[in-house]
């Protein structure tokens, strides 16, 4: 029963974290297009708050994910070897954490007024977590290897 509760809360926190990963780059698109100071400050405030909140959501998502891995693949009797699809999924999780931190670096550039990227670049950047989510879901559900 503990496994199922852990899994449920892991999924809830991952979904919540992804909401931020989807929306923050969209704010970057708007920041890259904005020319008015008042609007820019409002968007920066939104971006700062969202980045802080999604960072708080990522932490329990990771902790619960590690707990699930320990429950399934940790030491002890009856545990099984971690399959290849899980290694691939963890690779995407590491890439997503890197994406998350890249969002923080981009936010700091906007705050310092040194962003050099166009709104078009941020539109493409905004698609990265969609592709990664697709890969993770397919790996977890289909378990292709």
What secondary-structure arrangement, pairings included, does this model have?
Layout: H1 2-33, H2 37-73, H3 84-112, H4 119-125, H5 128-142
Describe the structure.
The protein is mainly alpha-helical. The protein contains five helices and no strands. Helix 1 packs parallel to helix 3 (about 85-110), helix 1 runs antiparallel to helix 4 (about 120-125) and helix 3 runs antiparallel to helix 5. The radius of gyration is 18 Å and the shape is elongated. The two termini are about 25 Å apart. The relative contact order is 0.16.
Number of helices: 5
Average pLDDT value?
96
- Helix content range: over 70%
Distance between the termini: 27 Å
* Proportion in β-strands: under 5%
**Could you list the spans in which at least 5 consecutive residues all have pLDDT below 50?**
none
Q: Based on helices, strands and strand pairing, what is the structural class?
A: mainly alpha
Order of helices and strands: HHHHH
Query: Radius of gyration from the CA trace?
Result: 18 Å
Net shape: elongated
How many DSSP-defined strands? 0
Reported for the largest beta sheet, the result is: none
Salient structural properties:
single chain; 145 residues; mainly alpha; elongated
Q: Outline of this structure?
A:
The chain contains five helices and no strands.
